[in-house]
Amino acid sequence: MFIDREHAARELAEALAAYSGKRPLVLGIPRGGVPMARLIADSLGGELDVVLVRKLGAPWSPELAIGAVGESGVLLLDALADSIAADYVAQETARQMAVIRRRRASYTPVRPAIPVAGRLVIVVDDGLATGATMLAALHALRRLRPARLVCAVPVAPPDTLQRVQAVADEVVCLRVSADFSAVGQFYRHFDEVNDEMVLAALASAPPDHPR
């Protein structure tokens, strides 16, 4: 069990130490992945940005993912979506794309996303459950032609990890557990991360840190 996200991020930074000094682009998935990505970027001497993806919720349970959509419009649907009306999927996709646009305007209002092409890219989240959001992020980023695409997470179930390994060049996962019901069960403290905390993480690079 991790104490909190900071504890998990420091362990991930140690596991990613081979990339220190290679100026990786570390992309946090909002919200929980961004403060973690900040610590990892600082530890490795990399740049920090966000990768904006949103889970598509089922009509009967918004927390149940039927897929995910990325900032570029890349849509990844789970098999569960086959039994759901296409109109609902389209409406849910449009709703989540609106959230993505608002977040980009809020999180990086004075600049566009940092270019990915040719970069060593590390995508960070606080854990994987279904993996829908991470998979959408990886598929979207792959289209932008990074030199290497790495997924870094503290915990995931084995079946989800297999799906992610098929998309990323490398997956760094500290704990793999078949006894998995939610990401939060692996943290002693798993408080909500709000937009103010994301903005603070994005703004907190040291003076000599690349932006």
Q: Determine the number of helices (DSSP H or I, runs of at least 4 residues).
A: 6
The overall pLDDT average reads: 92
Would you state the CATH class of the largest domain?
Alpha Beta
What is CATH's topology name of the largest domain?
Answer: Rossmann fold
Assign the CATH architecture of the largest domain: 3-Layer(aba) Sandwich
Radius of gyration: 16 Å
* Percent helix range: 25-40%
- Sheet-strand content, in percent, reads 15-25%
Describe this structure in words.
- It is built from six helices and eight strands.
- It is of the alpha/beta class and 211 residues long.
- The radius of gyration is 16 Å and the shape is globular.
- The relative contact order is 0.20.
- The C terminus is likely disordered.
Looking at this protein, list some descriptive labels.
Rossmann fold, disordered C terminus, 2 domains, globular, three-stranded antiparallel sheet, five-stranded parallel sheet, alpha/beta, 211 residues, Ybab, Chain: A, 8 strands
Short note summarizing the structure:
With 211 residues, the protein is α/β, with parallel strands linked by helices.
Secondary structure layout:
Elements: H1 5-15, E1 25-28, H2 33-44, E2 47-50, E3 53-58, E4 61-70, E5 75-77, H3 86-107, E6 120-124, H4 132-142, E7 148-156, H5 158-165, E8 170-176, H6 195-203
Parallel strand pairs: 1-2, 1-6, 6-7, 7-8
Antiparallel strand pairs: 3-4, 4-5
Helix pairs in contact: 1-2
